[in-house]
Amino acid sequence: MIKKEIGILLILSSLLFFSLNFYEEKKIQVQNERLVQDFFQEEKQTSIEESYYGVLEIPKISLKRGFYSYYSSLNNVDKNIELISNDCIPGNKCSFILASHSGNSSISFFKNLDQLVLDDEAIIYYSNTSYVYILKDIQHVVKNGTISLLEPDTSELVLTTCNRKNDNIQDIYLFVQKGFSENI
């Protein structure tokens, strides 16, 4: 009889755990959709601290997620997509670097980057302009807290995340700018 009660208790606790996880993911998704919508509106409804600085879209993997200013307290890989440096603006000859998790948690926004292949597109929406980038290289390097990049001769987008199969490897996706459109 005790085994049956323990089994029922385990099943109920598992259901509760998965329900709470599902609820948390839905809450994050709804908040992101609201903030993305505010980003594209002329008059933003959210505060400056809470407003997105830009939006990353990768159509192939159905990713459309905002990111915060480098100086925002919300610019943290443990909460959002993180803007790694404040010295590059999309469209300039520099490396615009974003990082996110790739696991299975509700904050693993880069979990599907491994589905990308060369020539796939990514779009950065920033300051009323959309910048289109094409994937030109995928690198898998030993994770040491840094990324070695050459000085770009074009505007590039760099996405980085942990490798899903090996915790000691960092995946780096290098995109180069294809074009831009003003007044998004």
Describe the structure.
The longest helix has 39 residues, at 2-40. Helices cover 21% and strands 32% of the residues. The chain has one helix at 2-40; strands at 54-58, 63-67, 82-83, 95-99, 121-126, 129-142, 156-162, 169-182. The protein has one domain: Sortase, Chain: A (Beta Barrel). By secondary structure, the chain is α+β, with helices and mostly antiparallel strands. An eight-stranded mixed beta sheet has the order 2-1-5-6-8-7-4-3, covered by helices on one side. It contains one helix and eight strands.
* CATH homology group: Sortase
Oligomeric form? single chain
Number of strands: 8
Reported CATH architecture: Beta Barrel
Q: Which structural class do the helices and strands define?
A: alpha+beta
* Largest sheet data: 8 strands, mixed
Gap between N and C termini, in Å?
64 Å
Radius of gyration, in Å, reads: 19 Å
Overall helicity: 10-25%
For the record, what CATH class applies?
Answer: Mainly Beta
Give me the number of helical elements. 1
Average pLDDT, to the nearest integer?
Answer: 83
Task: Give start-end ranges of low-pLDDT stretches.
Answer: none
Shape: globular
Strand ordering within the main sheet: 2-1-5-6-8-7-4-3
Which fold name fills CATH's third level, the topology? Answer: Sortase, Chain: A
Summarize this entry quickly.
This protein has 184 residues and is an alpha+beta fold. 21% of the residues lie in helices and 32% in strands.
